[in-house]
Specification:
alpha/beta; 6-stranded parallel sheet; Rossmann fold; globular
Amino acid sequence: MPHTPTLERLNQVEVFALDLDGTLYLGGEIFPFTLAFLAKLRELGKRYVFITNNSAYNQQDYLNKLSRLKIAATLEDIYTSGRATMTYLLEHGGPQPIFLLGTESLHKQFRQAGFETESQNPEYVVLGFDLTFTWKKFDAACRFIRRGATFIATHPDKNCPAPNHDLLPDCGALTAAFEAATGVTPLVIGKPEPFIYRDIMQRFSIQPHQLAMVGDRLETDIAAGPKNGLFTILVMTGVTSRDELQESTLQPDLVLDKCVDVIPLLTKN
């Protein structure tokens, strides 16, 4: 049982930001406890949203996936690093001409909001998870950055989990290549940076201590705690091992085998 101060902080939480892959499901398979967990949160008067750094897919893609898994959600409930990046640009004078390195799904999301995504005179170079990345794109984007385009990365993850415990190079790995080639460090938007959490807190009119981040990654989900003043819960159903947790300087407020284990610790609103 967690210490009393931890439980007191936990029960100040009004909204749970729930990571997806590794927390509620793994790949295309929902965990057997996920639906009961969400139902219990609602029963206790707690609200929740879904949050992911994976910018390969847009909100509609995730809504479709959640629907297939029988998880009820709306577009507004789904916070992606791509959505947060688009929101940031719109709040800073957008839609601007950008050079976007990302999937067709991400391009579609930006185009629907009025962005020109393949500008040859961009104000911003936006780097996401790009399965069609080529040297030609790399060269062009580096030239734009050197000429003064602002460099933005949708998220910092260096690798993305793949089936059979494999890993795919992710946005953070490509970011390192761009930094080496241009000497420019990007503005990073996704977890653990404040942009997504700010949007969630504004939506629900809550303070940082009333928002909990629940996820399986130390460097993004748990790092969001000290960076943003959130309560953090690490679940052991994803990428982090007990050994990695023990060795890390990033420590969550609470460690649970699985997300549903938080339910007995909560009091009803």
